[in-house]
Amino acid sequence: MEHDEPLQKVLNENSTKKYYIQWDGFKVNHTAHSLVAIRRLGATDAQLAQFVKEPRQINHLLKPEVFAAENDPLTAGSPASLLGAKTSYYVLVDYYEKLLQQKYGCSLQRLIAGELPSMMDGILGAALHGIIQLGYGYVARNPRVVVEGLAEIHFSHFPLKVSLPLSTLGDFGQGQLDILTVLKQVKADEDLQKFLSAGNFTKELGKRGVVFTYKGDLMIDYINKVKLPDWFDVSSADEEQLYRLMDWVFACATTVYTLAEQKNNFFLLHGVTAAWCVRQVLPPLGKQTADVLSAVRVFLCSLLAVYISEGCPGFCELSALPESGTAAARSWESIVVETLSSLGRDAHAYKVVQVCHDMDVATGSSKETSHLYKTAALISLGSPYSRLH
């Protein structure tokens, strides 16, 4: 996509230079994600141009001038002091642009490899949107969107607080349970549920934040129970195994989203798109195996925290979903045509369809996994968002 000039043009013209990264206090600007997603689905140049004119896509977005005061570089503070401070976003964008040019020789790969690992523990902030922005920016090879993604991770950084460094793998990879069984154990954890029912939350520190802040070690314990694929060996993982592991993580996130009783749960949905985006930024990390495994663990803990914050919904059988029956008779071509037939959909739907389509096609999924991905895509297209809380 690096040489897709119409895409690069529309991304640069509609970057955060034009619209702020957030709106309505905490909601996130999805313009870049959506443009890359619909292009990967086959959107024409005309559709790209029309997308950024659709009222549903742009009318709610804010102009950068609203935030001018907090972005004065003379008063904003150092980058270190801005980690997780949720202020001075444009100061951070400028910071990463300078790093890209002056330290990393304009190499997006080197920039990500050099800056992402130290912040990966905090990707849960802003409901995973920083890593989503970064992943879409890197797959498009768009420097502006990449630095916006790193700036957003920095801006909204919310770390997983654990007793041991995340690089200390411990029992990771030794588990014997599938992801749904582990989540059912979380749901049945009386001590955890009592802690959560105490209601000691604020708007700034909701359930996801409380879990990451006070129950980080417990999250690691539960993630360590998850059985990794038989072909994966933590002690000798090579690059190919790491990529395949992230494909498996994507399948886990999609399973949780698709089978959750709260159909099309708004936050579980973000686990699907974020999993794909984490997969996109693995190549820059290359042979930094410890960084990749830390990223996988943090992502799985993030997925677990989202599940907890959504009230620990139960799960249904895939065969019980109406969309499952429909998916059996649908081709990806027909699903993609339906998706692009309207540019006024909620932006999340384009991304779910695109990542599920990409993963199915790119990984040569089994018949069962392909069916799961089509079902997830149809749920995102046809169901209203749900939340238990």
The percentage of residues in β strands lies in under 5%
Tell how many strands the DSSP assignment holds: 2
Succession of helices and strands = HEEHHHHHHHHHHHHHHHHHHH
Structural class: mainly alpha
The whole-angstrom Rg is 20 Å
Major β-sheet annotation: 2 strands, antiparallel
What best-fitting shape do the alpha-carbon axes yield?
globular
Strand order of the largest sheet: 1-2
How would you describe what is shown here?
The chain has 389 residues and is mainly α. It has 20 helices and two strands. The protein has helices at residues 5-13, 31-40, 45-51, 55-58, 89-103, 108-115, 129-140, 143-156, 179-187, 190-197, 207-214, 216-224, 239-259, 266-280, 282-285, 289-309, 322-327, 332-340, 347-363, 367-382; strands at 22-23, 27-28. A two-stranded antiparallel sheet has the order 1-2. A hairpin with a 3-residue loop joins strand 1 (22-23) and strand 2. Helix 13 packs parallel to helix 16 and helix 13 packs across helix 20 (367-382). The longest helix is centred in the middle third of the chain and has 21 residues, at 239-259. The radius of gyration is 20 Å and the shape is globular. It starts with a helix and ends in a 7-residue tail after the last helix.
